[in-house]
Amino acid sequence: MATEGEYESILCVKPDVNVYRIPPRATNRGYRAADWKLDVPDWSGRMRITAKGKVAYIKLEDKVSGELFAQAPVTEYPGIAVETVSDSSRYFVLRIQDDNGRSAFIGVGFGDRGDSFDFNVSLQDHFKWVKQENEISKNPQGAALGPKLDLGFKDGQTITLNIGQGKKRDKPRPQGAGGLGLLPPPPKGKMAPPPSSAFSNHNTVPQTGGSDTDLDSSNSNTVVQSSNPSSDLWGDFSSPAR
């Protein structure tokens, strides 16, 4: 039974349920809802299923005031506290108890099959949890550790590791326009001076005009001048004196 200090949780609430007085069961074949006066229920109200600890309580209450009409404590399901009928899935037989421990059997029925399905499933889920709690309490260490994994090597089993044998990836070279590789920067140092304005030795400038040329005996440079001053490529340079 439930102990003091445990909180009460609500498993299911159904707003419409009918209660019937049932005749004593004459044979062992089970209860039949056809033997009840289904068109004239003896009481109508709501059903609220609660749980306190491992015990479930089926409470029949008034729809408006919430006053308790009857209550059926359930310690196991299926069991004697809740039984199904043989001719319908919408009707059940409950064993109700009062505060003095006296019990009686009544019939309850739902107008919708969905309500009877929810009633059945809520009890099944609760006692499935109760079963798991009982198994854990019997073997707390095994439940905490769970199944052990065998990570050892079996006979003849080996493992191969390839370390440091991967191929090295070449770093991509930066490319300029047109997909050509960029030239490396010049080495550090002094750059070559720019060419002077004077003519370097052994420079030859092709002649664009006539065949008249003047040679400077003091310089080995050869300067070719055009006979036409207006077409001189060298601008304002004057020809050396003879």
TrEMBL record:
Residues 161-242 are annotated as: Disordered. GO terms for cellular component: clathrin vesicle coat; plasma membrane. Keywords: Cell membrane, Cytoplasmic vesicle, Endocytosis, Membrane, Phosphoprotein, Protein transport, Repeat, Transport. Involved in endocytosis. GO terms for biological process: endocytosis; protein transport. Belongs to the NECAP family. It comes from Salvelinus namaycush (Lake trout). Residues 208-231 have a biased composition (Low complexity). Residues 183-196 have a biased composition (Pro residues). Residues 197-207 have a biased composition (Polar residues). This is Adaptin ear-binding coat-associated protein 1. Pfam families: DUF1681. The gene is LOC120021970. It is found in: Cell membrane; Cytoplasmic vesicle, Clathrin-coated vesicle membrane. Residues 7-164 form the NECAP PHear domain.
